[in-house]
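Narrative of activities, Objective 1.

The group set out to show that a structural description can be obtained from nothing but a protein's sequence at a throughput compatible with the screening campaign. Below is one input-output pair from the validation batch, recorded exactly as produced.
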Amino acid sequence: MPERIGFIGIGRMGQPMAANLVRKGFDVTTIAHRRPEPAQALEALGARIAPSLASLVADCSVVIACLPSSTEVETAVLGPGGMLEAGRPGSVFIDMGTSRPASTRMLAERLRERDIAMLDAPITGGTRGAREGTLTIYVGGAPDDLARVRPVLEAMGQTIVHMGGSGTGHVIKLLNNALSLSSMALLAELLPLGVRAGLEPQRMIEGLAAGTGATNQIPGRGSRILKREFEAAFQIVLAHKDLRLAQELAQEHNLPTPVAAGAYLSFTLARGLGLEGEDTVALVKVFERIAGVEVKSP
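Output recorded for this entry:
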């Protein structure tokens, strides 16, 4: 029998991911959250809207959560009507958000007691990847459980990487985000410095993109900064949360991560200045204010 997919968390990433599942022929059930429009859009494509969380998890053999943090995931699993209480034995729960690895391992153990498998399968690739179905998906959990749901994941992502046991998907996602966000923090520091030192912003970014210090994200990030396009694809508040989780992971293992700690401080400053709802490229505003310049096209 084909898997019936329940999808919890239809925000900027979740809604297009669920839409791809529907378009690929999967039987998808979702639930409305703060706004009804994303659920209604999925319903128009052919998805069903469950009246409650308990109804959704009881009716679906695979339940996907794309939620902001471990707090919401724990509620979906341990709370009233959640997977632990209402989920079907033999089903699979997949956490596709960026969560705390220790929480993931705890939830996997609790669900295993009810004969429910859990995979941590966080994603990277941004909203464009979510729309186009080209996400990279890191997976932690049992190989057999991954094999069972691989067609589901392949409907949303282009690259599926099995990292190991429970929690390892979330560990590698935290490392990936710490690496990416530390790069963003350094770029945000250096661009205002370059302008203050007399460089023309467009030429500065072209020069950095052509040099040995370039990353493949510099041209895109630089272009958005030049055009002052700060509408959120990945909000500063979520980036700050991911860096905090990476710091907690390092502390659990008694390892210093000074560069990532510096990036965490920069994102903390951005939140303190009220930028938390803007995209991560808006981090440049912190250092623009310090330098008294703007990095923008003429």
